[in-house]
Specification:
mainly alpha; about 0% strand; Mito_Metabolite_Transporter; MCP_dom_sf; Mitochondrial carrier; transport; MCP_transmembrane; Mitochondrial carrier fold; globular
Length: about 350
Amino acid sequence: MLAGLKASFLPPVTVNHPQEYKMSTVMVSPIEEKVDHWQKGRTPTNREYAMKFVTAAMSNMAASGVSNPLDVIKVRQQLRTQVPGSRKNAFWAVGMDMIRKEGLISMGSGFSASMAREVVYSGFRLGAYEFFKDKLYGWSNGALTREGITLKVLAATCSASIGSALANPADLIKVRMQAYYPNGSPYRNMRHAFATVYREGAAASAGSPVLGGLRTLWRGVEATTVRGVVLSASQICSYDQVKQVLKGNGVMQEGVSLHLVASMFAGLFCSLTSNPVDVVKVRLMTDKNREINGVLHCVRTILVKEGPMAFYKGFGMCWGRLGTHTIVSFITFEKLRELFGMEPM
């Protein structure tokens, strides 16, 4: 009887087969341990979404600061109309020519406008990506899976469309400040550039100067938005997908090495897809004399006068700039998320 009472108070003992126990062991990386208080699958709060916006803006500002010289050379290449393949178009020739004629400081052209652009553009396109991903997943009632590429592309399209359209004025000012002017830049600083461009549009539209000024600031918004969507869908989605595949197959664990590999793939892919649209966008934004009548006219003009390869002018610098920007921005983004106690992307 005493033995029976002792047995009734003892907890049940389950003996697992060694092989079964081995299979149930889960390897957790140090980063994942730091954020174990986050519940996977739950909907983040508005404060957490806001923190993602802030960290996305901060990481991309850091990346733009590093890659700004490459961005300036890329813009200069894309504005040249020489035959593709000309040695004068090479990035080293353009860069050396800039330093010789304008000084090393010319590599920092448009820096302030670039920082302002990243706050809005990247804050939305990267910071709001997971917001739209969560919302679209909920609205689809499970029809869109979190692992599927469709949900990622739709989320990136939504976030990039908003960010690109809102940031167009800062993007236009950045390009104007980075362009080459034989008699010296007409812009003293970002504020002066905004005022000058606004007055330029207001003067060209006597009937409605306010609307004319705003139209000038949003010139090329169609190409900007298309480029933003193409770049974000290829960059953010490929980064997300590569991380998912490498982690899911046990090739790599969450950490800087995984972030580096995924961002390198993302940088190459988005450079290939976005360069043609970027060329059109730059041409439209620097067309002060209104010689180009929209995106289609710009595309047709480039094809007829310079050939199809002109859409890949500045690709070396585009890849160098976007590749660097992508690596720095994603690694910084992931590190900031870790510091703020958020789960990895």
